[in-house]
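Working notes for the structural subgroup meeting. M.R. asked for a predicted model of this chain before we commit to crystallization trials. I am recording the input and output together here so anyone reviewing the notebook later can reproduce the run.

Input as submitted:
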Amino acid sequence: MKLTFRWYGKNDCITLSHLRQIPNMSGVVTACYSVPVGEVWPREELAELRDLSNKAGLEMEVIESIPVHEDIKLGKPTRERLIENYCENLRRCAEVGVKCVCYNFMPVFDWLRTEMHHQNADGSNSLSYSYEDFQKVDPHNLHLPGWDESYSQEELQGLLEEYSHVTHEMLFDNLVYFLKKVIPVCDEVGISMAIHPDDPPWDVFGLPRIVSNEKDLDKMFEAVPSKNNGLTLCTGSFGAGRNNDLVHMAAKYASEGRVHFLHLRNIKWTDDKDSFCEVGHCTSYGSLDMAEIVLTLVKNGFKGYVRPDHGRNIWGEDAKPGYGLYDRALGATYINGLFEMAEKIAK
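Returned structure, recorded in token form:
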């Protein structure tokens, strides 16, 4: 495996020097965050990100993400130009050595939580989702943690209205249309597309979710069989869906060569409904068997990219929720240990 770390570019408070000091860290996961969704990324900006990473002794082989414009998800006529721009971005990413692109096909919200600073018993805080709190949200007057700065009230209501007629089948057809355009480019330039599962893996505000479970994945891979049409196996996202058997899914999709990227984080189910909170990476902290998942991946041939996903805010660190340095660095060292032991057992 190749251990990586999310880096938000030159404006990230976490420096490349910090990342280089994490044991076994091979590279960064980044993107051209300043470019509007749907537009073409400047070659010079991509090259600068690569050069800064390489100078720090790190690779830039994973992009997370090239966002998919809402018009593509909605199937609007404008999608033709937007998909061509997406294809051009893939070509430009390949020019600077990118091997894997993580993306998602979630309408409007690519993650959803009800609290950004849930207080844990150990004194840390983390992201959480409360079924009870979510039921109190007024869909006609939405104010959501982490999203109020992303959409105006008018923009949000307008998007929800546009999606009001979109069914699961329509959204899936639009995903397949998109993939049938971009995967041939991936095949040509040697990039793997790794779709991120829905987070959380169920419908929200009537918006359909189509990458939530094994059945969804099988349907997508059958529609577009190329092995470059693959998966970001996010344990926290799939794990929030209690019917998802992560060990089984890890074995199945790793053996098929579909797992190109791995997001490792643990979550703890907190009631008998859909509630969960994000916890430390170790198995004992949460509801997911992290050790068994990693061992299963290794036994089934996984050799892709891995990053520690959302961490807690610990030791007084004032950072972007889920994206502080300290707990994700601890998670990275835990991941190193899991893979070292799993690889010895697998041999």
